[in-house]
């Protein structure tokens, strides 16, 4: 294995998925031209080596950090000039990140933290911008034909320590190490605003008028997580080869960083758990010593081209095992770094996700408590979108209303209130006062409050996106859905965005998101995943595939789920089965007509064209027509 110090440039096309969904052939042609006429020549001119292309991205290695920065700046400068001559719909923009670090060489490929940091810097950069690490800025200052503007310390995904980030300034020639205040957050009502301002004023009086700005920023930081504390003990190397210790160490560290994205979990640092390496430890004692509610331990075994990682989550209060799973990967199909990242994501998802082991365990405990005894975290564990029991809905709704009243700074309470109002609208419920439009307005305000308190919550952005979709704001839906996907860290959110993309015109991207969610968590029973794929295949005329996916995610207690089953069975020629399904739907929703179903579909579909096959099937099984406007087939679905 060879290691060397290198400057790494990572580049990515902004909004690639959106561009591809609009004009796949045009985007591919523009990318090819961009490479041939601009990107590749500039890499060669600055003595770089194109390591690999990754769809819409590229990874380039340089021996000189000055060459790497100069190349990045030239690419963005020339691309801006190129775009100025094109209409907006034909422009491609790049984000670029540059890092200087140690890399591991494997054939023509490179991987390691040096590469990972470059990729994460790229994802943080603004369109048309270049972000670099402090090592790059320090070494290139005064040598590269650009300056560097300090952005601040950022916690980057899968990177253990915060990274000091600088923005390349095309007009400058020096390093500007100035601190930056975060954007002012939106306060919840006048009382909350006055409380924050008063707290800051008192701090300034205590510290004197020359107190640094960073103290004000800290006063405005969100509250610490209110959920359980999790300790991740070092994963043990079972390969029998001490040279593989680095792999176990890397996976342990990556899991800690990835779990840190779940804002309701207190994740103990690696240093806190470093001494707890021995097999067969009593997890209750470990938890007691560390003050942890849960302990996650694991093993790593590499044998030839196979890698197996196991994880086990223990409730430190009872000693009970609440989750365990083994993850197997083939190392020949992709680089070790990609495999490590994929396993890390799967472990973190299984443990910390919205539908993960910790949330399920805590939710079971919370369901046994009276509503008035539930903490804000426990109230937020309930999922209004999945609660079909009226009594449970009322219980949870009261709990959520209490949380936002007593703890107006708790973002998840507002997110759950928005979600509960959204569900009430979808089901024509009466848990909350007001008309449907008034509930939607309250839901949108609650979701925006949650986002103002925690802009990095993909779930809050998703809830807002679906509320906007219910309000027929398709562009707003796309914008917030893309925000949720860009933040990432919640595969349930990714899948739900994918589900609604299959309704709103972005079918291929929606199906890809759903398949990815299933791949990462094949044991999950989350209904939108397979049902979304069933709808996708149905609209493509692939009825056998549609039925197979539907069977995996059927919800026989929901009439709109059974409506999809009716349509699939009828198109397969299974008339008797379709009629039996129709009768089951009648039992769930007596008196339902085609007009009711079309009304529901029109709330979410981009056009009426997607309703045609459904309406044909519903008519064929004798569902009454009802009164609705004729289908408008002028726009392709």
Structural overview:
The chain has 26 helices and 15 strands. With 637 residues, the chain is of the alpha/beta class. The chain folds into 5 domains: 172 residues, Alpha-Beta Plaits; 30 residues, no CATH class; 132 residues, Rossmann fold (3-Layer(aba) Sandwich); 114 residues, Tetratricopeptide repeat domain (Serine Threonine Protein Phosphatase 5, Tetratricopeptide repeat); 83 residues, no CATH class. It is globular. About 8% of the residues have low confidence.
Structure keywords:
alpha/beta; Alpha-Beta Plaits; Rossmann fold; nine-stranded mixed β-sheet; 637 residues; single chain; six-stranded mixed β-sheet; 26 helices; 52% helix; 5 domains
- Total count of helical runs of at least 4 residues: 26
Largest sheet: 9 strands, mixed
Quantity of strands, as a count: 15
The number of domains = 5
General form? globular
What is the mean pLDDT? Answer: 79
- Over the alpha carbons, how many angstroms does the gyration radius reach? 27 Å
Range of strand content: 15-25%
In the CATH hierarchy, the architecture of the largest domain is 2-Layer Sandwich
Please give the share of residues in helix: 40-55%
Secondary structure class reads alpha/beta
Which regions are unreliable across 5 or more consecutive residues at pLDDT < 50?
Answer: 178-225, 384-388
CATH topology value of the largest domain:
Alpha-Beta Plaits
The name of the CATH superfamily of the largest domain reads: Nucleotide cyclase, GGDEF domain
Termini, distance in Å? Answer: 52 Å
Kindly provide the name of the CATH class of the largest domain. Alpha Beta
């Amino acid at each position: 294995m060879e290691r060397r110090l290198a400057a790494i440039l990572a580049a990515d096309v902004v909004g690639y998925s959106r561009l591809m969904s609009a004009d796949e052939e045009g985007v591919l042609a523009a990318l090819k031209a961009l490479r041939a006429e601009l990107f590749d020549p500039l890499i060669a001119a600055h003595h770089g080596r194109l390591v690999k292309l990754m769809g819409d991205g590229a990874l380039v290695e340089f021996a000189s950090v000055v060459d790497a920065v100069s190349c990045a700046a030239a690419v963005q400068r020339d691309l801006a000039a190129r775009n100025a001559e094109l209409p907006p719909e034909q422009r491609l923009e790049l984000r670029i990140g540059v890092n200087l670090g140690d890399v591991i060489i494997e054939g023509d490929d490179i991987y390691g933290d040096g590469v990972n940091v470059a990729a994460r810097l790229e994802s943080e950069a603004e369109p048309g911008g270049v972000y670099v690490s402090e090592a790059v800025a320090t070494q290139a200052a005064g040598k590269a034909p650009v300056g560097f503007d300090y952005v601040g310390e950022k916690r980057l995904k899968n990177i253990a320590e915060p990274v000091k980030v600088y923005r390349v300034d095309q007009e400058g020639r020096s390093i500007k190490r100035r601190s930056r205040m975060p954007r002012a957050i939106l306060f919840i009502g006048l009382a909350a605003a006055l409380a924050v301002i008063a707290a800051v004023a008192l701090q300034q009086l205590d510290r004197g008028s020359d107190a640094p700005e960073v103290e004000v920023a800290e006063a405005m930081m969100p509250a610490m997580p209110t959920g359980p504390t999790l300790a991740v003990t070092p994963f043990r190397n079972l390969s029998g080869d001490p040279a593989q210790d680095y792999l176990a160490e890397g996976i342990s560290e990556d899991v800690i960083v990835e779990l840190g994205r779940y804002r309701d979990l207190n994740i103990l640092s690696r240093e806190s758990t470093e001494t707890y390496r021995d097999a067969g430890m009593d997890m209750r004692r470990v938890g007691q010593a560390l003050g942890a509610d849960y302990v996650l331990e694991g093993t790593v075994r590499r044998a030839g081209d196979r890698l197996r990682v196991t994880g086990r989550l223990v409730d430190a209060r009872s000693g009970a095992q609440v989750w365990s799973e083994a993850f197997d990967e083939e190392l020949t199909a992709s680089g070790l770094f990609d495999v490590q990242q994929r396993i890390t994501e799967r472990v973190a998802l299984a443990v910390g996700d919205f539908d993960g082991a910790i949330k399920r365990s805590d939710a079971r405990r919370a369901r046994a408590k009276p509503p008035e005894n539930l903490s804000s975290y426990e109230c937020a564990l309930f999922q209004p979108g999945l609660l079909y029991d009226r009594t449970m809905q009322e219980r949870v709704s009261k709990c959520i209303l209490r949380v936002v009243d007593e703890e107006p700074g708790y973002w998840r309470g507002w997110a759950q209130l928005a979600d509960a109002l959204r569900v009430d609208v979808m089901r024509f419920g009466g848990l909350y006062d007001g008309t449907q439009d008034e509930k939607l307005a309250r839901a949108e305000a609650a979701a925006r409050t949650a986002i103002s308190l925690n802009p990095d919550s993909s779930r809050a952005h998703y809830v807002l996106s679906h509320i906007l979709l219910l309000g027929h704001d398709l562009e707003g839906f796309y914008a917030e859905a893309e925000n949720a996907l860009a933040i990432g860290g919640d595969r349930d959110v990714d899948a739900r965005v994918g589900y609604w993309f299959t309704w709103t015109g972005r079918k291929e991207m929606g199906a890809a998101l759903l398949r990815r969610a299933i791949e990462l968590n094949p044991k999950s029973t989350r209904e939108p995943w397979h049902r979304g794929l069933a709808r996708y295949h149905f609209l493509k005329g692939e009825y056998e595939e549609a039925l197979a996916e539907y069977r995996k995610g059927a919800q026989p207690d929901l009439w709109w789920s059974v409506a999809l089953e009716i349509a699939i069975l009828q198109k397969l020629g299974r008339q008797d089965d379709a009629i039996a399904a129709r009768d089951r739907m009648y039992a769930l929703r007596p008196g339902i007509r085609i007009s009711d179903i079309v009304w529901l579909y029109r709330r979410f579909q981009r056009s009426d064209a997607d309703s045609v096959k459904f309406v044909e099937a519903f008519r064929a099984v004798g569902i009454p027509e009802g009164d609705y406007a004729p289908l408008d087939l002028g726009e392709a679905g």
